[in-house]
């Protein structure tokens, strides 16, 4: 299995190999020079879970506005120990540092293989390779973990339990922000059931000799309801907002959360999934760690009837979560092309 990390470590690179040169280089150059232009919504998780009804109500309104206007927000005071976050980053780095032959056993070819590591997005069909190595683990309903590093499994399990609890609480708040019952999303889609789906995705973006020509991840939206993300302090995430790319500089010890395609389907387009991308740099390795939270794989996701206005009608076809994942992962990563296939022509 060949990886960007192995490529970088094999020979000194002064220029980018041609198969990694990404399309619109002017756009890439611009995004590397960007400064934050907008204030990203901040959600105080401790107020969302507060026993003070006024504080909770106020935070639910803020959460709804973040989903409506951004599809993206930062979570503070979430209760996940900083030591656990740091351990997860260290263990992830240690996994990527394993020798190639130690990682080869996880070079899975099938979408639902318990553990897969590789490079780019779908190297079999990508016309241009991405400057990215990844590790993907299905951690729920069945917990999986690589055998090495030795401490990875324990940290992973605790970390995913904590982010799962956070996602469930955020979904309760989002339900209420939509005027629905608190547990509507979680119960309708079985998010808190023993069969709900959680995917751990770690990305490594090594230093790139010509970052203005490469891309870590191109513009795309995520599957699922919510993605909860943290990174190792190196910038690189950009979010599309009001037609412009906004460079994200998260607060220390915060999580970044974005709404996914299945949130857009469920809310009939009210809360849209957000386009985002990962750019690279020539100085430091960036690590990002995301957990994607969705319903059981065979759950049919379609617009909630309570959110389908009579005059507008249903905007999206229903599809099982499993089939959506298969559709998305079978092609190159490209914007919201997968979700667009489910839209009704209005």
Automatic annotation (TrEMBL):
PANTHER family, per database record: OXOGLUTARATE/IRON-DEPENDENT DIOXYGENASE
UniProt organism field: Gossypium raimondii (Peruvian cotton)
UniProt KW keywords: Iron, Metal-binding, Oxidoreductase
Listed InterPro entries: DIOX_N, IPNS-like_FE2OG_OXY, IPNS-like_sf, Oxoglu/Fe-dep_dioxygenase_dom, Plant_2OG-oxidoreductases
One of the record's GO molecular function terms: metal ion binding
Domain of life: Eukaryota
Fe2OG dioxygenase domain boundaries: 195-295
Family: Belongs to the iron/ascorbate-dependent oxidoreductase family.
Protein name listed in UniProt: Fe2OG dioxygenase domain-containing protein
Chain ranges passing through the membrane: none
